[in-house]
Amino acid sequence: MKRLTLVALLILTPFFAVACGGDGGEATATTAAPQVGDPDPPLPMDINTMPYKPNDLVALGNASIQIDTPITAEDGTFSFKVSITSGALEPISITPEMFRVYTLDGKSYISDTAPGTEQFGARTLQSKEVYTGTFSVKIPTDSEPAMFLADLRPIGDRHFPGAWVFDPNFTSEPSEG
């Protein structure tokens, strides 16, 4: 149930709009709502139920992460800075597959490799080391970027997944129950 609530909070609430109109039974043109898809790959079961926002510094177990406000370049590249600080006593290794941008249609993308730009995420961090890089992706569809996922579970049991929503106006609504 929590997973369904999270998907609704993260994907449907901030971006899904319903257009309505018409008077006296006349049909009017409406704007089609964006196509919403299931996250691929699925979101981790133990992800935070209240998404973070850009500039929030978040502890995900023995690592903390902060992302900047994303920008979209003229060529359509969507990018933002990510800083990771290791709090582990031993070195930890991160991979590009641990970091994804999900779009409203449910697709996800790892950071692109581009000439002159290092792919984000291929790194081993020593204790207390800070790694800052640019997560950059060119999304091949018209679907809007909805969230950033950092899934640190592969590092070990003292690391957790976390999600950041890109909508600056997002406000979470308390769940019932």
Automatic annotation (TrEMBL):
Record protein name field: Unannotated protein
